[in-house]
Amino acid sequence: LWAWRAAWSTGRPRQLLRVLCAGSAGGLTAGFASCEDQTQAERHHERPASKRRPVSMGNRDYIEGIKIWGVGIKEDPVPGEKRGKGVQHLRSNTWMYDLASFIQDHFPQIEVMIKYARTVSAQPGFEGYDFRYFINCSEGLFYRALDEGLQTQYSRDLLLMASWSLMAAAEVNCEPFYDMQHARHSKEERRRMRVEFYRQYLEPEAPFVDDKEDLEMEKVLGSFGLASNRFDLIPALALERLDVHNELCAVKWKKDPGAWLRDGFQISARVDSMQRHYWSIHAKDWSEDHLAHGIWNLMALYHVVVNFPEMSDLTNFRDLREEAARANVPE
């Protein structure tokens, strides 16, 4: 009777039969205990307990310390604000797209520069040579671009290579131009980032392909066709520094920091500014991030000469030389 009542009260009718069977085999009490063990084992088999916990707590880098299935949202540098993450919409999309395509089209030339800079700077006594090499390349390319008044496709290509070279300098630079107290990146992190910069160009994860024109493919793609590009190889730390500079510009020009993207500007005024930033870099002026200033200037110049060519007030000296040469040729 006790076994019957226990079985019905626990809502386990299947257990009732096992209790009776166990009782006939050797006692109701022992049989009930045996059946309870079997029932627990069956429940475990039917609904195994999962050790996977969807929610984890106490992750200090994430909002409220929460991760769901191992994924969380990182806390902002200033909780509730986006300060310190840079401003990306103030980049020139024209410059970004053309720079990515330029890297694809001119990778052999970039690779040669990368190999040379790393080889020389790895020699004893030449530490830091790569930084000065890329800076000087950038400035030299900039002046050559100015020789044609930034009015030709060749001069615009020179401007893109000057941009890439200055960004490369930002990647290999371990002097305190940026983050002087190592609040953003530790010294060890900066060393690793420098190594990674060289690795991604000399041992790219995605190999370069022979970019032959495929007319049939272009026809099918239609308006979705793109120039071959390598956005993944645009120097990442240089972009970070550019974005922080854009964030500071948004603080300085609160009302309309993106006016230059929409309205353009007089080209010669920005050329003046670019030259001052090169001087400041050479003079080791740590008071501002003149590398980021310079990258912004080259980006802005490219954006305006492409989108607002009428704003150019520079002289194409190469044309003047060629005209003079033609005029002096005897008939």
From TrEMBL:
Entry superkingdom: Eukaryota
Residues in dATP/dGTP diphosphohydrolase N-terminal domain copies: 229-313
Record's signal peptide: 1-18
Assigned keywords, A-Z: Signal
Pfam families per the UniProt record, alphabetical: dGTP_diPhyd_N (PF18909)
InterPro entries per the UniProt record, alphabetical: dATP/dGTP_diPOhydrolase_N
Stated name of the protein: dATP/dGTP diphosphohydrolase N-terminal domain-containing protein
